């Protein structure tokens, strides 16, 4: 079953276009990406309400994501081994503390970027 049809008054069937420079387009698209919105939704929110609520949208870079995926695979293997044999790796506590430290660092780096003004709500410049 598909999505219910919107009422005629709620449908966005009229297009509005305007010209921007390549640099302006990149700036709009980057701001929309940081806000977790499409460029259309971002511009619409800024123009019609003068406000923009930014969803927290922290994304890991690919290398960090890949490392977390690899760690998850290894932890899954260790968990299966522990469940099957009762063997628990001797340094598991040390490794887990290190993983927690690295994740906390990544989170704090993301918070530092957010507090630097990258995702501040629109104030009606």
Description of the molecule:
- Pfam families: NikA-like (PF21983).
- This is Plasmid mobilization relaxosome protein MobC.
- This protein is mainly alpha-helical and 125 residues long.
- It has two domains: 20-57, no CATH class; 58-116, no CATH class.
- Helices cover 61% and strands 0% of the residues.
- The protein has four helices and no strands.
- The chain has helices at 22-35, 39-49, 62-85, 92-118.
- Helix 1 packs across helix 2 (39-49).
- The two termini are 44 Å apart.
What's this entry about, in short?
This is Plasmid mobilization relaxosome protein MobC. This protein is mostly helical and 125 residues long. The protein is built from four helices and no strands.
